[in-house]
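Sanity check

After download, print the first record. It should look like this:
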Amino acid sequence: MRALLQRVSRASVTARTSVDDDPVETGRIGRGLVAFVGVTHDDTEAAASRLADRIATLRVFPDDEGALNRSCVDVAGAVLVVSQFTLYADTRKGRRPSFVAAARPEHAEPLVEEVVSGLAAHGLDVATGRFRTDMQVELVNDGPVTISLEV
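Expected structure tokens:
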């Protein structure tokens, strides 16, 4: 599993299930992390649990001296989880990315839900996007701090 984390001062996501639908806000957070989460074919619940633990405890928030020594749990932050199959894009050939390494939604969705559950088990407020929809994410990157994780 992969995650692209962005430390944010605020973020939100809206989704629409078809082009004719109006966008509906599905998640909003204040200070915390936006976690774009990608799943590949051989990922498991154990990987999802490890990823949730890493996201919750990764020290990317400043302490009183400005060093990155605090986690999202330490600062009582929130996490906005957005499924992101494009994290498994293969761009080595040609000009059009291949998404063959990305898991099908039937495999990916329960694992993203497991990440959400794992984050909530850490006591974090968690908001989400909506699977299989066109989503619009708005965020204010704080720092900026952007971290790539893989488990």
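If your output differs, re-run the checksum step. Summary of this record's structure: The helical segments are 45-57, 105-121.
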